[in-house]
Specification:
Distance between the termini: 42 Å
Strand order of the largest sheet: 13-21-20-14-15-19-16-18-17
Number of strands: 21
Largest sheet: 9 strands, mixed
Helix content: 25-40%
Radius of gyration: 23 Å
Structural class: alpha/beta
């Protein structure tokens, strides 16, 4: 049985395909269209999924869309009416898109799939999130929490899964939303909503939690039962064109920061404060969920589940023994969740799990390319390359990064979700004192404060980090081990704001954030043999099983998908080498790279 899942028309559109319940393919539309967070109908992602399965539209037995557009439209109309006549301008901007596309989802799907005549199912948004969290997890039964901005009406839900059954017990409804609260502060600190929340999380450790009490006393009422309410007088997202109101700005004493302007310590302190409030709210919800369900394992999905700092605290301080998080936790994962909901809940098909291994294939579910395809695309660009045997790749790349070279790593199938997991990655030496600055400013073209994540061999993670387990999807933060930290001078300890960047804190300074933490990815030989062997070779050379792993893209651009994408990104940046399939490219021997205009002008640099 072939089931196609689709998410679209908000952000991070995607498609996923199940064959007899097995996840065959999944990808975000942005990887093909090259439009970051592409919200449009995922025609390219659907074509890829069908091609990978070797089927056409008429071979589909069911299509699942990740939410119910009519209920969402009802929420929008009721919200605008509640605030009328304020919000007319926002209303007039939103309604044409709804009338043209968003209300016509079934008709559009049938048309785009060559007059597909089979059933189209539409689970609720948070049912799709819950299904994406539980059904691919390794657990026979588990508690489930979904946290995001908003679906139809729901913003937060708790429930449980057992076998092929899914139950949502409680929910919090719009406009009270932990995701929208965090997005409001993202906006206030000068970053783009639905784009820059991870920047806010990265900025937080530079500040102090000076405004936690102010936020808790005025903006959000956190209750012991896990519920919360926002004081909507401080927010403008229901019917306005901004996230925050004048009352919000008056409360904090300053207007919102303008994008691209200097970030001073005030906004760092604000970022730290809302991050701590968010973590506290996540812990409140988790404790209530545990008390209600009595289960020892937890599954998470929704955009807030990408807050890996909060996830780390849930695992360390929360009541659950184990936590599994959907790697495509945001709306993209809704495509997979919708398809799984149809298979297990509506079709009643059983699950088979062992309690240890998840069913998501390490999330390597996107396009892959054969050597001949790679060679053809490189030849079209006039690239100069060396052909390596498969066994030569790990050792040669390990030597390069040990020599302080930055390498683009393009191997196997593309990751599904927002994180690069060793398939479309830029890699470097985590021991380098200068690598964070070099990568941020000369390769990623992004803000200097942004931290880099490590990949560490799974069997050696406990030697380097306060973490004993696996984090294959880069969704947990842990502290660097105390014996890997260096003693700081009085001057280093006194550093404030962005001056903290210059402080060398550990044996792996390039991945050690200013609070001595790191966003971990662990890699096992079973999940990604080539990536594992490369890092093992680096460990053999240096005695360090930790490398930098950042996504293979530059600011404002999606992660690369094709070999051509990889080559173009390689040539536009100061990367030293590119390992794409069996081919190794040295920047110094490539032909001069020329474009008619500065390529960075073609992207909206948020």
């Amino acid at each position: 049985m072939n089931i196609l899942g689709i998410s679209a028309f908000y952000h991070d559109s995607a498609a996923a395909l199940l064959q007899d319940g097995r996840i065959v393919a999944a990808a975000q539309e942005e990887r093909f269209s090259r439009l970051k967070h592409d919200p449009g109908y995922p025609a390219n992602a659907i074509e890829y999924c069908l091609k990978t399965a070797g089927i056409g539209p008429h071979d589909l037995d069911a299509v699942a869309f990740y939410d119910k557009p009519f209920i969402k439209f009802e929420r929008i109309l009721k919200s605008y009416l509640a605030y009328a006549p304020r919000g007319l301008r926002s209303f007039m901007m939103a309604i044409p898109m709804w009338l043209k596309h968003k209300l016509m989802v079934p008709e559009m799907i049938r048309r785009e799939l060559d007059d597909y005549q089979g059933p189209i199912y539409m689970p609720e948004h948070h049912e799709s999130h819950a299904a994406s969290a539980f059904f691919p997890s390794p657990y026979p039964e588990a508690a489930i929490i979904t946290l995001d901005g908003v679906g139809e009406w729901t913003t937060t839900s708790i429930g449980s899964g057992s076998g092929n059954e899914l139950r949502i017990d409680q929910e919090i409804r719009f406009p009270h939303s932990l995701g929208l609260l965090y997005s409001a502060f993202t906006y206030y600190c000068g970053f783009k909503v639905n784009f820059g929340e991870y920047k806010l999380m990265g900025l937080a450790p530079y500040g102090e939690p000076k405004y936690v009490d102010l936020i808790l006393e005025n903006l959000i009422d956190l209750r012991d039962d896990g519920s919360f309410k926002l004081d909507m007088r401080y927010f403008d997202y229901v019917a306005g064109l901004r996230m925050t109101s004048r009352r919000f700005h008056k409360l904090l004493g300053r207007p919102p920061r303008k994008g691209e302007s200097k970030i001073d310590t005030f906004y760092m302190d604000v970022a730290r404060s809302i991050q701590e409030v968010t973590e506290t709210a996540m812990l409140h919800i988790a404790r209530h969920t545990h008390q209600r369900t009595g289960l020892s394992k937890l599954c998470l999905a929704g955009g807030v589940a990408l807050n890996c700092v909060g996830n780390g605290r849930l695992l360390r301080e929360g009541p659950f023994d184990e936590v599994w998080i959907q790697p495509a936790a945001g709306d993209a994962g809704g495509a997979l969740g919708a398809a799984l909901f149809v298979w297990h809940v509506l079709q009643g098909q059983p699950r088979q799990v062992d309690g240890k291994s998840d069913l998501q294939h390490a999330s390597y579910l996107g396009p892959g390319f054969e050597p001949d395809e790679i060679k053809g695309q490189l030849d079209e660009r006039g690239a100069v390359y060396t052909l390596l045997d498969q066994g030569q790749i790990p050792g040669r790349v390990a030597e390069l990064i040990a020599d302080n070279k930055v390498v683009g790593w393009f191997q196997g199938r593309t990751e599904f979700g927002p994180r690069a997991l060793g398939s479309r990655s830029i890699i470097g030496d985590a021991r380098s004192r200068d690598m964070q600055t070099v990568m941020n400013l000369k390769i990623k073209f992004r803000e200097s404060f942004r931290p880099f994540a490590p990949t560490v061999l799974a069997d050696k993670v406990a030697d380097w980090f306060d973490f004993d387990g696996e984090s294959p999807y880069m969704l947990m933060v842990a502290d660097v081990k105390a014996d890997k930290l260096r003693e700081l001078s009085d001057e280093d300890q006194a550093a404030q704001g962005l001056d903290k960047l210059r402080v060398i804190r550990s044996e792996v300074p390039a991945i050690t954030h200013v609070n001595n933490s790191a966003r971990l990815q662990t890699v096992s030989r079973e999940d990604n043999p080539l990536y594992y062997e490369m890092i093992k070779a680096f460990d053999d050379l240096t005695g360090c099983p930790v490398i930098i792993n950042t996504s293979f893209n530059v600011r404002g651009e999606p992660i690369v998908c094709s070999p051509d994408d990889a080559f173009v990104c390689f040539m536009r940046t100061d990367m030293d080498y590119l390992a794409v399939g069996p081919y190794l490219l040295d920047k110094t021997v490539q032909k001069p790279w020329k474009e008619q205009r500065d390529w960075r002008e073609t992207y909206e640099l948020d």
